Amino acid sequence: MSAPDWSNLTLHLEGSLTSALGHYLDNWRHNMTAAANALDKTLAEENFRSVIWYLAVMIGMFAFIIVAMLVSTVKSKRREHSNDPYHQYIKEDWTAQIQQGDVVNNFAAA
């Protein structure tokens, strides 16, 4: 082999190694990109499902608390009677204020 053949061999080896390494790295990058895209897609679906479940649980708990408050309020109103001592006290207090207001109005009119 002569000197020009060695230089061509070196250029040929350089070109083939560069091509092989470039092809390998391109395939590796493509595989990593495909794997990353698949992972992103899976995570996006899982996170969306988690958000839906979280919202469903929170809305359910909120609805349960509201219904419990409404039921307790309705039960307490149903048990309240007009002959309840506290209710009588309030009723007497209001009628006393109304009668006292009538006396003040009659006095001012006279």
TrEMBL record:
<dbReference type="GO" id="GO:0015459">
    <property type="term" value="F:potassium channel regulator activity"/>
</dbReference>
<keyword id="KW-0813">Transport</keyword>
<keyword id="KW-0633">Potassium transport</keyword>
<keyword id="KW-0812">Transmembrane</keyword>
<dbReference type="Pfam" id="PF02060">
    <property type="entry name" value="ISK_Channel"/>
</dbReference>
<dbReference type="InterPro" id="IPR000369">
    <property type="entry name" value="K_chnl_KCNE"/>
</dbReference>
<dbReference type="GO" id="GO:0060307">
    <property type="term" value="P:regulation of ventricular cardiac muscle cell membrane repolarization"/>
</dbReference>
<dbReference type="GO" id="GO:0097623">
    <property type="term" value="P:potassium ion export across plasma membrane"/>
</dbReference>
<keyword id="KW-0472">Membrane</keyword>
<keyword id="KW-0406">Ion transport</keyword>
<comment type="similarity">
    <text>Belongs to the potassium channel KCNE family.</text>
</comment>
<dbReference type="GO" id="GO:0005251">
    <property type="term" value="F:delayed rectifier potassium channel activity"/>
</dbReference>
<keyword id="KW-0630">Potassium</keyword>
<protein>
    <recommendedName>
        <fullName>Potassium voltage-gated channel subfamily E member 2</fullName>
    </recommendedName>
</protein>
<dbReference type="GO" id="GO:0086091">
    <property type="term" value="P:regulation of heart rate by cardiac conduction"/>
</dbReference>
<dbReference type="GO" id="GO:1902282">
    <property type="term" value="F:voltage-gated potassium channel activity involved in ventricular cardiac muscle cell action potential repolarization"/>
</dbReference>
<feature type="transmembrane region" description="Helical">
    <location>
        <begin position="51"/>
        <end position="71"/>
    </location>
</feature>
<keyword id="KW-1003">Cell membrane</keyword>
<keyword id="KW-0631">Potassium channel</keyword>
<keyword id="KW-0407">Ion channel</keyword>
<dbReference type="GO" id="GO:0044325">
    <property type="term" value="F:transmembrane transporter binding"/>
</dbReference>
<keyword id="KW-1133">Transmembrane helix</keyword>
<dbReference type="GO" id="GO:0016324">
    <property type="term" value="C:apical plasma membrane"/>
</dbReference>
<keyword id="KW-0851">Voltage-gated channel</keyword>
<dbReference type="GO" id="GO:0008076">
    <property type="term" value="C:voltage-gated potassium channel complex"/>
</dbReference>
